[in-house]
Amino acid sequence: MSFKNKTVIITGGTRGIGKELCYEFAKKGCNIIFTYARSSKEAKIIEEDINKLGVSAIAKKLNLLHLENIEEFYKFLNKKNIKIDFLINNAASGVMKNSLDTTEKHWDWTMQINIKSPWVLSKKISNIMNKKGRIINITSPGSTKVMNNYFSIGVSKAALESMTRYMAFDLAPKDINVNSISASLLERDAIKHFPNQDEINNILKRPNPKQKKLIPNHIAKVAIMLCSEGGDMIVGQNILVDGGDTLLLR
Ligand SMILES: NC(=O)c1ccc[n+]([C@@H]2O[C@H](COP(=O)([O-])OP(=O)(O)OC[C@H]3O[C@@H](n4cnc5c(N)ncnc54)[C@H](OP(=O)(O)O)[C@@H]3O)[C@@H](O)[C@H]2O)c1
Question: Is 90 contained in some domain?
Fold first, then answer.
């Protein structure tokens, strides 16, 4: 399978799952446009590294907190006449508090980055997508299950999964498949921000039925599968990648 002459946009490509997505798609011959909010140094290193793999890599600053940045990004793509094959809405942020301590400001912040901006970006990019286009939203089981201090992010992920279904319906006639990948908890930088570290570490330590640690590469491989020919008739689905973890009654 090769993605030669195809182009993917990956939001939040500087860390964790996003970074892994950049490398995995590049290894398949795909040109990479990845975005970041703050990590310009890291972005430069990844951009240079991926260019060495023989594909084109472009790192662009795109803070999803402000919609005008999306407009600017879209103008940049149009100016360069770049057509897109795949968009992966991976970037996310959020305030780690429970539903009672979360303020309206926290709520607005999380919803802007995790749901409103991915919707606006998806709408825009769908206008410049080639046939057999794919949009993938990265979500988490916190959309349907409760995790301490995950309130606003969990709600935003539930909205993202719903958005996936609605946009899948609207974009399917244009030959653009929209799906989401739900990743179980991974050992990543982001989880260090949880105030309840012991609880998080216990979740990470508990064995799943596969008896295998989930790593970002597992998520990236599923994204590759969805973007390949095999994903042609997968529309509006949420693919859970957790080694069977959520099957268990805990
Ligand atoms: N980690 C997990 O256990 C886990 C589990 C399930 C689902 N997920 C989901 O997987 C995705 C990636 O998570 P991760 O933990 O791998 O990554 P991460 O370490 O949290 O990195 C997040 C990425 O998003 C970017 N970002 C942060 N705030 C942004 C903003 N305001 N505007 C634009 N970009 C912004 C960051 O850019 P900078 O580096 O420039 O800040 C970074 O590239 C997220 O959607 C997350 O919810 C993660």
Answer: yes
CA of 238 to the centre of ligand 1 (A): 18
**Ligand 1 atom with the shortest distance to the CA of 216:** 16
CATH of the domain at 100: 3.40.50.720
Catalytic residues: 150, 157
Q: Give the atom of ligand 1 at the shortest distance from the alpha carbon of 114.
A: 45
Q: Is the pTM of this model over 0.85?
A: yes
Q: Say which amino acid occupies 194.
A: F
Q: Does the structure show a pLDDT above 80 at 88?
A: yes
Please report where in the chains the tokens 């990956």 appear, as a residue.
Answer: 10
> Which atom of ligand 1 is found nearest the CA of 20?
16
pLDDT digits (tens, 9 = 90+) for 95-115: 999 999 999 999 999 999 999
Instruction: Identify whether 163 is part of a domain.
Output: yes
Which residues line ligand 1 at a C-beta cut-off of 6 Å? 11-18, 36-39, 62-65, 90-93, 113, 138, 140, 183, 185-186, 188-191
Domain that residue 198 falls in: 7-244
Mind listing the pLDDT tens digit for each residue in 150-195? 999 999 999 999 999 999 999 999 999 999 999 999 987 777 788 8
Q: Find out whether 140 and 181 touch, Cβ atoms under 8 Å.
A: no
Any alpha helices (H) in 80-182, and if so which ranges? 104-111, 117-126, 151-171
- Give the whole-angstrom CA distance, residue 171 versus residue 77: 20
